[in-house]
Amino acid sequence: MRNSRLSKSLLGITLSASLLLSANLVLSPQAVHAASVTTATATSTALKANSILATGKQYMGVRYQFGAPKGSTRSFDCSSFTQYVYGKSGVNLPRSSQAQSHVGTYVPRNQLQPGDLVFFYSPIHHVGIYMGNGKILHTYGSPGVTISDLNSNWWSSHYSTARRVL
Q1: How far apart are CA 65 and CA 142, in angstroms?
Q2: 46 pLDDT band (50/70/90 cuts)?
Q3: The domain containing residue 122 runs over which residues?
Q4: Is residue 31 assigned to a domain?
Q5: How confident is the model at residue 42 (pLDDT cuts 50, 70, 90)?
Q6: Is residue 93 part of a domain?
Q7: 126 assigned to active site
Q8: Which residue out of 33, 102, 125, 138 is catalytically annotated?
Q9: Catalytic residue at 33?
Q10: Is the N end or the C end of the chain the one with fewer CB atoms within 10 Å?
Q11: CB 126 within 8 A of CB 157
């Protein structure tokens, strides 16, 4: 009986080792490495987007001023706001919303992710940061830095394009 149990254990270990070696032949080290690099990049991008959004939210209510000076946190216009909060996370953006609309890569509206820049009007003269769940963080007029619903009639009808810069 003892011999039988030992034989079964050895058989189980041998089968497990065979399956493991077979899996290693099927899943090459390059495929495993590529998958882990992709996952790490996605995680890094999500962390950076969260950092940008957290930085931007710290300025909720800061007044809007057209042509606000670069680097000022006493007032923002839409593009100085995006330039400032992205800059805090090491992402350099040009000063104007029109120029910002040419950096990064185009993103279809149905594929927006937190941290994407969203642009409004034609020609473009407003920019905000997509937060997820149809919300944007941006600044304009009397509310100053605020959160708006991208899917509301007004913002939705003035939506122009989006760019991914992360």
Answers
A1: 10
A2: very high
A3: 52-164
A4: no
A5: confident
A6: yes
A7: yes
A8: 138
A9: no
A10: N
A11: no
pLDDT in tens, 79-116: 999 999 999 999 999 999 999 999 999 999 999 999 99
Q: Which of 78, 102, 125, 158 is the catalytic position?
A: 78
Among the listed residues 33, 102, 125, 126, the single catalytic one is: 126
pLDDT digits (tens, 9 = 90+) for 54-69: 999 999 999 999 999 9
How confident is the model at residue 40, as a pLDDT?
A: 74
Give the separation between CA 50 and CA 45, rounded to whole angstroms. 9
3-state secondary structure of 129: strand
Provide the number of structural domains found in the chain. 1
43 versus 57: the higher-pLDDT residue is: 57
Whether 64 is in a domain gets the answer yes
pLDDT score of 5: 54
**Domain annotation covers residue 91:** yes
Separation CA 114–CA 130 (nearest Å): 5
The structure tokens listed for 44 are 């890094």
Verdict on whether the full-model pTM lies above 0.70: yes
CB 150 within 8 A of CB 136: yes
CA neighbor of 141 nearest in space, from 59, 55, 62: 62
What is the pLDDT at residue 43?
86
Tell me the C-alpha distance between 70 and 53, whole Å: 19
Is 138 one of the annotated active-site residues of the chain?
yes
